[in-house]
Design goal:
It is built from eleven helices and 14 strands. The protein is α/β, with parallel strands linked by helices. The structure holds S-adenosyl-L-homocysteine and iron/sulfur cluster.
């Protein structure tokens, strides 16, 4: 049997090609995209402006996937919602909706697990299990939007690729998902409201910027250290992607208004949060400070970790030193602390619960 085309695997051009290949007029692509991405339906029968015959034809050739909600938790502290999805092969991934006063941001996952092996990150504990497929990436957005109501006032305007996994290690699916997110005929988000966060794989960053088909979105890079030795200790990937080479690569990316590069820095007590670290970081960035902003993230502890979260006072001291270098700094006091919003923790809870049930 011919395998069916998963429609959410297609960017708009590919959707048009699919429609033409099936002897349908080209304008059907626009109609189908409207149903999938604007109305967010999950069956062909809901596409009421297509005739029954066309719907039957599509059913034979194509499929529409969705994600199965395993569980969710709403934070009493700040209203953020953490979703755990069960994938078709039984693996689980998570998505966090962060509700700010005037906009909503969705933090999405790109892989089950992660191969990068950062010491402070729970996601990587069991290594990489697999890449997410394009539909699994965009369905996180579609399902959450359906969950909170698919209305203009509830619209999720911002997407950050900061959930589980290294987005640039799943290049093709992430690229396709960005095409679908930003296409006006599809999900129609603004390029400026999408951020891809990477651990700093230099050749993949270069590939992305040189790829004419990769819509330009914002880049965040997890720096997490102020010198090479420290970064190598925290992020093994730095052995081959040194801090100096990484900064040189980022410095070379043409500056574009509204697309400043965000440098993320997870502050870990007694490891990378000293005054000396703040000064070193300040100097490293001040050579090109207009191009960057720094995002300080106080470490979110998880069971079994050797690291600790710094005190609020220490975080503020670090921030103040960066100000002296005229650097724009934002402290990301973690959203949804009470629902364990740090990378990978809801998933862990669920796995533990299952274990408890088995034993
Ligand atoms: N793999 C990508 C994106 C996912 S991680 C990356 O590394 O950038 C998203 C952010 O969460 C990264 O900046 C990472 O440094 C941070 N992070 C990971 N574990 C954390 C923890 N336990 N506490 C606080 N931040 C953490
Ligand atoms: Fe992977 Fe990012 Fe976690 Fe590092 S911080 S292990 S790159 S998910």
């Amino acid at each position: 049997m011919e395998t069916k085309t998963n429609l959410k695997n297609l960017n708009f051009k590919e959707l048009e090609d699919f429609v033409i290949k099936n002897n349908l007029p080209k304008f059907r692509a626009k109609q189908i995209a409207k149903w999938l991405y604007n109305k967010k339906v999950d069956s062909f029968d809901q596409m009421t402006d297509l005739s029954k015959a066309v719907r039957e034809q599509l059913k034979e050739k194509a499929e529409i996937t969705s994600l199965k909600l395993a569980t969710y938790e709403i934070s009493e502290e700040d209203g953020s919602i953490k979703f755990l999805w069960k994938l078709k092969d039984g693996h689980t991934i998570e998505t966090v909706l962060i509700q700010e006063r005037n906009h909503k941001t969705l933090c999405i996952s790109t892989q089950v697990g992660c191969a990068v092996g950062c010491k402070f990150c729970f996601t990587t504990k069991d290594g990489l299990i697999r890449n997410l497929e394009t539909p699994e990436i965009i369905d996180q957005y579609i399902e959450v939007q359906r969950f909170i109501g698919n209305t203009p006032e509830n619209r999720i305007s911002n997407v950050v690729y900061m959930g589980m996994g290294e987005p640039l290690a799943n290049y093709d699916n992430v690229k396709k998902s960005v095409q679908i997110f930003t296409d006006d005929k599809m999900l129609g988000l603004s390029n400026r409201k999408i951020t891809i966060s990477s651990s700093g794989i230099i050749h993949q960053i270069e590939k992305m910027y040189n790829d004419p088909d990769f819509p330009q979105v914002k880049l965040a890079v997890s720096l997490n250290a102020s010198n090479q030795k420290q970064r190598e200790y925290l992020m093994p990937i730095s052995q081959t992607n040194t801090i100096e080479d990484l900064m040189k690569t980022l410095d070379k990316i043409p500056f574009k208004q509204g697309f400043r590069i965000m440098l993320e820095y997870v502050l870990i007590k007694g490891v990378n949060d000293s005054e000396e670290d703040a000064h070193r970081l300040g100097k490293l960035i001040s050579r090109n400070r207009k191009k960057y902003k720094v995002n300080l993230i106080p470490f979110n502890p998880f069971p079994g970790t050797e690291f600790q979260r710094p005190t609020e006072k220490d975080v503020l001291r670090f921030e103040k030193i960066l100000w002296k270098y005229n650097i724009t700094v934002i402290v990301r006091w973690s959203k949804g602390k009470d629902i364990s919003a740090a990378c990978g923790q809801l998933r862990k809870k669920e796995i533990e619960n299952q274990k408890i049930m088995i034993t």
